[in-house]
Amino acid sequence: PACAAASEIGLAAECSAGNAKACNSLGIAYLTGNGVAQDPGKASELFEKACSKNLPSACLNLGLQYTKGRGVKQDYVKADELFAKACELNLAVGCFNLAIHSMEGRSGKPDAGKANGLFEKACNLNHGGGCLNLGMNYYRGNGVRQSYGKASEMFAKACDLDRAGGCFNLGLVYTEGKAAILFGLGAVKSV
Fold first, then answer.
1. How far apart are CA 31 and CA 17, in angstroms?
2. pLDDT tens for each residue of 53-80
3. Cα–Cα distance measured from residue 96 to residue 8, given in angstroms and rounded to the nearest whole number
4. Distance between CA atoms of 52 and 142, rounded to whole angstroms?
């Protein structure tokens, strides 16, 4: 408790001095009640302060607050603006969250094309979920021209990024004999 209070005081002082990471860390403490009384509203204020200084993780955290209505009124449009800012600042999970909201139409009409662009950016930033979801959309032809080859590429990258669903889906594509389009292996033969 004494260490937590000292930590809170230190983070609060650093945050007041303009340290965005300290504001974000203090926001997380208030969100979780770690060393301070839990206060989602205070957490949101701190995330907003840090996001205004272009700390992408704080923009993501504030976007999650708006998505869930924690400490702020639930607002998907505002959440998506914050996820977009995090994505512009190259935080992969910001791109991924915005892509999911775009697919679901959380702040407007569902837009698979927009979502695929965001999944691609998340994938390029090494977010396995972005690769996996883009692969699924290529496999199904959802918002993109159907391509088993592109699907296989995305599933392989997701698998390389330790996303089990990518490995599983790549295995299914091989089993179905559809990966041969990409790798030029001919039909998969059983022994």
1. 21
2. 999 999 999 999 999 999 999 999 999 9
3. 31
4. 35
